[in-house]
Write a sequence for this structure.
């Protein structure tokens, strides 16, 4: 690269310590001590693999996936005999016995808390998945006619019909399919039907502050800007010390309609907490994109909900046809030996398939569709003898740049923020900086390694300081225009993990940071910030819930170990953060390997949702160390 980046190599290698394996070893040792068994036996292996699975985001360990010396039946019998395991398979459990830290349900081994999360979530969703009239005072025909007259697609009208006639509705769809528009229509119809006196009982929430802000601005654009929009944590009333929540089973929220966006980002624990804080009468609408990355910690709730059989039951399909005048979706498959119970969520699920933003046959739309389908993207099918380092999609919205030279990579990274750096020279006010910075972002799979967040941020920070102050390129830490991302919640300042701000100096030269909160600009002293880092580049996980006009997706080389981090869901999430264009800094091989590698999380939630009867509840909580599980 150039002389201003002599100490920061964006392609630097990385050395890591395998922390999850250390935790798994400690967990195995502890469980084996409690069970009085050998660590190198099959029980010890099960304990180790369970801890590893949880660190990878699974909610349980599927025993059938392990190669073991003895048979699956023998291994399960071994686990059942251990004092740390309770077997709940087919309802076989001693409800009077004290709970154990581990639970065996069929071929799945759980830590107790994750089994209970799944059980309670399934119970809550099944109870809420019932027909529910909007109001006794308004004729059903009035609501139906209002839906029919909306400027919306058939899948959106189907979603609205369900949301206004059921206690639970789950709406899925990719970017540009009209999820936010559907929410706006829903809120408007609900408020006009119920009346203005009840408007305060409508709430909208999202997992992150960024996603909540984006949703608030979108609702304001369609005349619903007075609806309270917050993070899920704020909705539940997280206490300032971060040790609990105001709302829960004994103090439920007072709301009639709750819309939760970006549900794919919500982990099992938070979904359990959210559902337990809702009144029985609430109308719940969950939205998200099931093809995106799942939550950072254990769980994949939205994808699990999507495993319900496709289509609607005959009765609900008939209701929609009769009311709206069209067939909502293809009917369910022909009856099979599998019995679909009345608790199944198929009648609560709607998928928005028509895309209003992208042409699905070219550009970003086609790339996203190919990635989701596991098809090697058209853009990467370059003849082996081609010498082009840069390849454009037909409509120009997608560019693949395959670079091997460090200087070329640095130039491309720098090019991303040329306009922003030019703006910095004029020292504009913070609101202009926030607006400009949100147009573009560099996204990476990880902090370390080749084309990682840390190296790119260090390189761009050096360049920004040089341009702002050529005579003193080191400058001070909070230079004008430095973008930062909060990495630790501060409930007193109302700043949360993932919030993005821009540093600036006012008249007294004190460094401050501006954050966008809905339509407001919130300013705090830089000295008061909680933990944070620079974010010219950010991880793809952190970018969930955000959108930018242009994104640059930087993937490690195919042969590099960090390439193992890149999978279909990660690439899809990165590509679909772009509204207009995306540049891939990657080789065709690295993209092809990502598309082949699909993330699947082990979970028992789909089976719990399909069960009429849950396994016995273990209401007594373990004591002392066992409460950790």
């Amino acid at each position: 690269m150039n002389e201003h980046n002599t100490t920061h190599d964006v392609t630097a290698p990385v050395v890591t310590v395998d922390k999850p394996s250390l935790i798994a070893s400690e967990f195995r040792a502890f469980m084996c001590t409690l069970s009085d068994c050998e660590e190198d036996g099959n029980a010890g292996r099960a304990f180790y693999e369970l801890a590893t699975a949880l660190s990878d985001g699974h909610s349980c360990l599927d025993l059938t996936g392990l190669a073991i010396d003895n048979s699956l039946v023998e291994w399960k019998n071994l686990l059942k005999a251990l004092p740390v395991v309770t077997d709940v398979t087919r309802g076989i459990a001693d409800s009077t016995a004290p709970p154990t830290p581990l639970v065996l349900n069929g071929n799945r081994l759980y830590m107790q808390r994750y089994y209970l999360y799944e059980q309670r979530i399934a119970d809550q969703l099944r109870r809420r998945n019932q027909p529910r009239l909007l109001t006794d005072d308004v004729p059903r025909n009035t609501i139906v006619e209002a839906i029919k007259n909306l400027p919306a697609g058939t899948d959106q009208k189907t979603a609205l019909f369900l949301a206004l006639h059921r206690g639970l509705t789950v709406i899925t769809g990719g970017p540009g399919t009209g999820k936010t528009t559907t929410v706006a229509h829903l809120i408007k119809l609900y408020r006009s039907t119920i009346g203005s006196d009840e408007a305060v009982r409508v709430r909208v929430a999202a997992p992150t502050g960024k996603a909540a802000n984006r949703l608030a601005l979108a609702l304001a654009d369609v005349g619903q800007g007075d609806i309270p929009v917050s993070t899920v944590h704020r909705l539940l009333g997280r206490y300032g010390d971060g040790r609990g929540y105001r709302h829960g089973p004994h103090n439920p929220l007072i709301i009639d309609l709750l819309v939760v966006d970006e549900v794919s980002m919500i982990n099992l624990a938070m979904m359990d907490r959210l559902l337990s804080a809702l009144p029985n009468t609430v109308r719940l609408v969950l939205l998200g994109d099931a093809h995106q990355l799942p939550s950072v910690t254990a769980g994949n709730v939205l994808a699990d909900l999507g495993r319900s059989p496709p289509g609607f039951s005959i009765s609900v399909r008939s209701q929609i046809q009769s009311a709206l005048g069209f067939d909502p979706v293809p009917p369910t498959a022909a009856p099979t030996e599998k019995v679909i119970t009345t608790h199944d969520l198929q009648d609560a699920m709607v998928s928005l398939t028509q895309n209003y933003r992208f042409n699905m046959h070219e550009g970003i739309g086609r790339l996203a569709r190919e990635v989701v389908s596991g098809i090697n993207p058209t853009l990467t099918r370059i003849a082996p003898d081609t010498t082009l380092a840069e390849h454009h999609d037909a409509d120009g919205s997608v560019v693949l740049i395959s670079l091997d030279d460090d200087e070329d990579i640095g130039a491309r990274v720098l090019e991303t923020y040329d306009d922003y750096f030019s703006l910095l020279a004029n020292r504009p006010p913070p609101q202009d900086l926030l607006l400009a910075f949100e147009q573009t972002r560099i996204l990476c799979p990880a902090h370390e390694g080749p084309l990682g967040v840390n190296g790119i941020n260090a390189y761009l920070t050096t360049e920004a300081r040089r341009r702002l102050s050529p005579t003193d390129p080191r400058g001070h830490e909070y230079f004008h225009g430095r973008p930062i991302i909060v990495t630790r919640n501060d409930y007193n300042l109302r700043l949360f993990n993932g919030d993005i701000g821009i540093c600036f100096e006012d008249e007294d030269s004190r460094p401050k940071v501006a954050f966008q909160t809905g339509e407001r600009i919130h300013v705090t002293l830089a000295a008061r910030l909680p933990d944070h880092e620079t974010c010219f580049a950010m991880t793809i996980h952190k970018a969930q819930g955000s959108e930018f006009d242009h994104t640059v997706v930087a993937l490690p080389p195919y042969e590099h170990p960090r390439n193992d981090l890149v999978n279909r869901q990660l690439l899809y999430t990165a590509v679909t953060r772009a509204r207009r264009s995306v540049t891939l800094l990657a080789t065709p091989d690295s993209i092809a390997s990502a598309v082949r590698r699909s993330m699947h999380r082990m979970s028992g939630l789909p089976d719990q949702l399909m069960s009429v009867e849950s396994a016995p509840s273990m209401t007594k909580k373990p004591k002392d160390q066992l409460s950790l599980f």
